[in-house]
Structure formats: structure tokens, C-alpha cells
Specification:
By secondary structure, this protein is an alpha/beta fold. It is built from eight helices and nine strands. Helix 2 packs across helix 4. Its EC number is 2.1.1.77.
């Protein structure tokens, strides 16, 4: 994917993503219009490129967020349970919380308390109802181990590159569920993978495209 979808404000950004056919679903378009990226990214929020948010991590480019939502949209439906690993600034977590509706729930997990605190403040700026209605919860923990307290999940999104593949996340996926995650070493080849579990608990992994993400690691290594 190329970074063409820069906007002058949030609505313009989403319009550009739709015009370039990154966003195909009206549900995704509506949800992304309801979450102003500027509340979650303080530098160049409407540029279609990754931006640093502190603590050694970035917020992904808008086109990658939109692409992830398109791949997961059938699992991020009304009433679904979703896990967002490496939730960072809370942006994508909030968009998904809108998509699951009032009967669903999205869990955002990050291992850095300061990021979790920041993401909560970000959500309160324009999407406080998601927290008030318990559609969105933000927790501190090791995302490589998932968050079994709220599982199993219809969809799991991972926002950092896993190496090795996090088998514990597959255990927390419902039959019929889907995981989207980058896999590979920090300084090597990384692939965006789609992982599907069928109704008999058979698991299928599919490589989608080469990507570049910060590593899914522990707090000490991330801050070193």
C-alpha cells in the first residue's frame, strides 16, 4: 500500500481513504469518522504515515488501520468481543469499540502503564461514552499472553511484530474467529498474517504482505 491518503482534518482523511479504496465498508467509514485521530496522535495526525507517540512505539499509518479493519470487519460486529494487543494511544481500540456496538466489548492491552493512562485520557477527549458504557476497557499487561479474563474473542488485532508467534493468543480465539498480526524479528523480514480458527478449532495461517512494525516485546526491552 502507498501513503496517498493525507487529509487536512479527520473527515478529509477518511474521505481520502475511501476514495483510494482502502476503506470499502460504510461501517468502517462511519466508525473512523467518529474517532478524531488528532485526539490520539499529537504530531501530524492526518498524515497517512506512522507517527511516534512516545515510549518507543508508533501509531500505525491510517491506511494500515483501515486495511486491518477491513480484514477483521466480519468479526468486529455488533455484540462481538475483540482484543487489541499493543493498544498504544487507544485509537484503533476506540474505532473497534464503536463497531461492536453497545452489546460488544473491546479490550485494549499494553504493557506500559503510562501508555494505558494516556490512551484513557485520549478516549475521554471525544469518545468518553465508550468507557462509560463499558464497551471499551484498557488494561496493563503482557499482550503476548492475551487477556483471558475477557476471552474468548471473535477478533484479535496485534499492533506490533511478534517473534516468536504468540500461540497463547490462538488459544483465546473463538471458533470462527480471526487474528491479524505482524510476525517476524525486529531487524528481519516481517509479514502481516491472517490467522483463522474454524468451528473444529483447526487453525490456518496466511501471509498477506511484508510490513515493518515495532517489536512485540516486554517493557524493559521497549524502553531500553
Amino acid at each position: 500500500m502507498e501513503w496517498h491518503s493525507h487529509g487536512i482534518n479527520n473527515n478529509d482523511l477518511v474521505t481520502q481513504l475511501r476514495q483510494f479504496d482502502i476503506i470499502k465498508s460504510s461501517r468502517i467509514e462511519e466508525a473512523m469518522r467518529m474517532v478524531d485521530r488528532a485526539n490520539y496522535c499529537h504530531h501530524n495526525p492526518y498524515n497517512d504515515s506512522p507517527q511516534f507517540i512516545g515510549y518507543g512505539v508508533t501509531i500505525s499509518a491510517p491506511h494500515m488501520h483501515a486495511h486491518a479493519l477491513e480484514l477483521l470487519k466480519d468479526n468486529i460486529r455488533e455484540g462481538a468481543k475483540v482484543l487489541d494487543v499493543g493498544s498504544g494511544s487507544g485509537y484503533l481500540t476506540a474505532v473497534m469499540a464503536i463497531m461492536v456496538g453497545k452489546t460488544g466489548k473491546v479490550v485494549g492491552i499494553d504493557h506500559i502503564q503510562e501508555l494505558v493512562d494516556m490512551s484513557r485520557k485520549n478516549v475521554l477527549k471525544g469518545n468518553a461514552n465508550l468507557l462509560e458504557e463499558n464497551r471499551l476497557i484498557l488494561v496493563t499487561g503482557d499482550g503476548r499472553k492475551g487477556y483471558s479474563q475477557e476471552g474468548p474473542y471473535d477478533a484479535i488485532h496485534v499492533g506490533a511484530a511478534a517473534d516468536p508467534f504468540p500461540e497463547e493468543l490462538v488459544k483465546q480465539l473463538k471458533p470462527g474467529g480471526r487474528i491479524l498480526l505482524p510476525v517476524g524479528p525486529d531487524h528481519g523480514t516481517q509479514w502481516l498474517e491472517q490467522v483463522d480458527k474454524d468451528e473444529e478449532d483447526n487453525v490456518k495461517r496466511k501471509k498477506l504482505m511484508r510490513v515493518r512494525y515495532v517489536p512485540l516485546t516486554n517493557k524493559e526491552e521497549q524502553l531500553s
